[in-house]
Amino acid sequence: MRDHIRFYLGDTLYDLSGFSPTLTVLDWLREQRGRTGTKEGCNEGDCGACTVLVARLDGGPPDGPRLAWRAVNACIQFVSMLDGAQLFTVEDLRAPDGTLHPVQQAMVDLHGSQCGFCTPGFVMSMVAYRKQPGAVAEDGPIDDALAGNLCRCTGYAPIVRAMKQAMAAGSDRFDAQAAAIADRLSALRDGQTVNISGPAARLTIPADADALAATLLADPEATIVAGATDVGLWVTKGLRTLPHVVAIGQVPDLKRLDRTADGLRIGAAVTYEDARDALAGLLPDAGEIVRRIGSTQVRNAGTVCGNIANGSPIGDGPPVFIAAGATLHLRRGDVRRNMPLEDYFLAYGQQDRQPGEFVEGVTIPALRQGQVFRAYKVSKRFDQDISALLGAFALTLDDAGTITDARIAFGGMAATPRRARATEEALRGHPWSEATLQAARAAIATDFAPISDMRASDWYRRTVAANLLTRLFAETAPGARRPETRLAGRSEAAIHA
Ligand SMILES: Cc1cc2nc3c(=O)[nH]c(=O)nc-3n(C[C@H](O)[C@H](O)[C@H](O)COP(=O)(O)OP(=O)(O)OC[C@H]3O[C@@H](n4cnc5c(N)ncnc54)[C@H](O)[C@@H]3O)c2cc1C
Ligand code: FES
Ligand code: FES
């Protein structure tokens, strides 16, 4: 058992105890370390002004550890989540002899900054992007990498140009230090549970899932924090105090992503970004849905299971996974139970989870023979926006084009993510034809009675839900006319042609 956390800020090792488990990285940097280069804009993960770079050793046997670099929003990360990591801020970029980092130099050369408030955040996202395996100097992936950074004055074109110039600049000084960083992070791995009791609050970082189970059994009121992309806002915007934080983001056995005979099992600490390729390979559209969850910074921290556990009616993952037929794995002490994911969501703000119980993982089955799968996210902005609604559809078609099975789930249409049972019934056993489509469009009006809120009116939600069925028909019905139904990946010129 350890009673302090250990991490590096730049090249300096910090042993910390006696701090609040909900002290944000941003407040610690600015108020206690004087690193004011990291800016506070929105304080809720939206603007990217606070972006910092976190290096961690990922993985283990059989592939061995891998040094991973991730941009995250310091405003909604807690210092308690940094155990075992190396944190870099914009102050770390310039070499000791004053030479600018290639990204900084490119921003200067190509006029990527005016007022400069957003600039440190952009620069950190750009440094992080250069470090991603397979990063390319192309507009689409660069836009994705920078979608979580807002700029009010410069305009994005010079920043994207700067990114491209920086990509061509070769390695940076962190590349030269990679082996040394990996060694020092490896030395921090001691496999111990961390327990820090302060006067007002307590922090536990369990060494493994067993330690997590025991901690929650002993204190069922403790707050689980995975990526803190929801919980962070409870603190910065809700001003909540959390008496006992249990940080699970680095629990090794919960970070596993396993292909089993049942499909893809995603552990409770796997982030959206780390699950993205596997999900994209498993279900058509899942990769695109993940790409549109928050921003790179949000996906680098937010977990797939946190998106389920929070019970939000507008979480993007749950409807996709419900339509695919996912199974949720829950654990309380040594007792485990599995349930169809849709059964977990009981009512608004109420889930089928007992005190002391936690989500250990979720298994998403692969598509079966004859199954087609589509998922559509509808939001006001294309990037970095919460869904107005999201529809996910799994149809099984036989050789004659008859729908033998249908699983349809929606988010944003009810108080929880929910199956569209009447619509499924209208499809099952019928040929996938124009007449069946019309029956399904009528049925979906009976499945849901959505509310109006700032994201969409009830009329809009009902209309779009029915129209998503029409889109599904156009994309999947045998012999249907195939109009262009996707904007993603098309150039602006092609869209307006
Ligand atoms: C700027 C921004 C943009 C966002 N955009 C989107 C979006 O486009 N789509 C979307 O769906 N979401 C979005 N979110 C919401 C959020 O990122 C996701 O819901 C995320 O997946 C939550 O995961 P987390 O690990 O950060 O959860 P946390 O914040 O750590 O936890 C969320 C809740 O789940 C509980 N919890 C976490 N893990 C477990 C577990 N294993 N067992 C039991 N309980 C657990 C926590 O106690 C808490 O109640 C956005 C958030 C931000 C800040
Ligand atoms: S301050 Fe806006 S994302 Fe952190
Ligand atoms: S340069 Fe002013 S906000 Fe980006």
Which structural class best describes the helix and strand composition?
Answer: alpha+beta
Count of alpha and pi helical runs: 18
Fraction of residues in H or I helices: 25-40%
- Give the N-to-C terminal Cα separation: 64 Å
CATH domain class of the domain at 5-91 and 176-247: Alpha Beta
Q: Which small-molecule ligands are present, each listed once?
A: flavin-adenine dinucleotide, FE2/S2 (inorganic) cluster
Radius of gyration: 23 Å
Organism: Gluconacetobacter diazotrophicus (strain ATCC 49037 / DSM 5601 / CCUG 37298 / CIP 103539 / LMG 7603 / PAl5)
InterPro entries: 2Fe-2S-bd, 2Fe-2S-bd_dom_sf, 2Fe-2S_ferredoxin-like_sf, 2Fe-2S_ferredoxin-type, 2Fe2S_fd_BS, Ald_Oxase/xanthine_DH-like, Beta-grasp_dom_sf, CO_DH_flav_C
GO molecular function: 2 iron, 2 sulfur cluster binding; FAD binding; iron ion binding; xanthine dehydrogenase activity
Pfam families: CO_deh_flav_C, FAD_binding_5, Fer2, Fer2_2
Concise account of the structure shown:
The protein has 497 residues and is α+β, with helices and mostly antiparallel strands. The chain is built from 18 helices and 20 strands.
Task: Lay out the secondary structure.
Layout: E1 5-9, E2 12-16, H1 25-32, E3 51-58, E4 66-73, E5 86-88, H2 102-109, H3 119-130, H4 139-146, H5 156-167, H6 173-188, E6 194-197, E7 202-205, H7 209-218, E8 223-225, H8 231-236, E9 244-247, E10 257-260, E11 263-267, H9 272-282, H10 286-291, H11 296-301, H12 304-309, H13 317-324, E12 327-332, E13 335-340, H14 341-344, E14 345-347, E15 350-351, E16 358-364, E17 371-378, E18 389-397, E19 403-411, E20 418-419, H15 421-427, H16 434-447, H17 458-476, H18 492-496
Parallel strand pairs: 1-5, 7-9, 8-9
Antiparallel strand pairs: 1-2, 3-4, 3-5, 6-7, 10-11, 11-16, 12-13, 12-16, 14-15, 17-18, 18-19, 19-20
Helix pairs in contact: 2-5, 15-16, 16-17
The structure holds flavin-adenine dinucleotide (FAD) and FE2/S2 (inorganic) cluster (2 copies).
